[in-house]
Amino acid sequence: LLNHIDVLVDGPFINHLYQPNLPYKGSLNQRVIDVKASLSQTRVREIQLT
């Protein structure tokens, strides 16, 4: 399945950490992972969103 996706949002949504303008995620504890880079480098590569 991971070979068929580009990004993955990791972590549960936590209501009290909700931020309405976060790109691709809903709460501050979540990470946006670049799946292709993570698989090729065999380590988790987060996408830094500003």
Strand content: 15-25%
The general outline is elongated
* Secondary structure: helix percent: 10-25%
* Class computed from helices, strands and strand pairing: alpha+beta
Number of β-strand runs: 2
Strand order of the largest sheet: 1-2
Report low-confidence residues grouped into runs of 5 or more: none
Return the string of H and E elements: EEH
Number of helices: 1
The overall average pLDDT, rounded, is 95
Q: What would you report as the Rg, rounded to the nearest angstrom? A: 12 Å
What is the first-to-last residue Cα distance? 28 Å
Largest sheet: 2 strands, antiparallel
Quaternary state of this entry equals single chain
What does the model show?
- The protein starts with 6 loop residues before the first strand and ends in a 9-residue tail after the last helix.
- With 50 residues, it is an alpha+beta fold.
- The longest helix is centred in the C-terminal third of the chain and has 7 residues, at 35-41.
- The mean pLDDT is 95.
- It is elongated.
- It has a two-stranded antiparallel ribbon with strand order 1-2.
- The protein has one helix and two strands; from the N terminus they run E-E-H.
Structural topology:
Layout: E1 7-10, E2 31-34, H1 35-41
Summary tags:
alpha+beta; single chain; 14% helix; 16% strand
Concise description?
The chain has 50 residues and is α+β, with helices and mostly antiparallel strands. The protein has one helix at 35-41; strands at residues 7-10, 31-34. It contains one helix and two strands, in the order ββα.
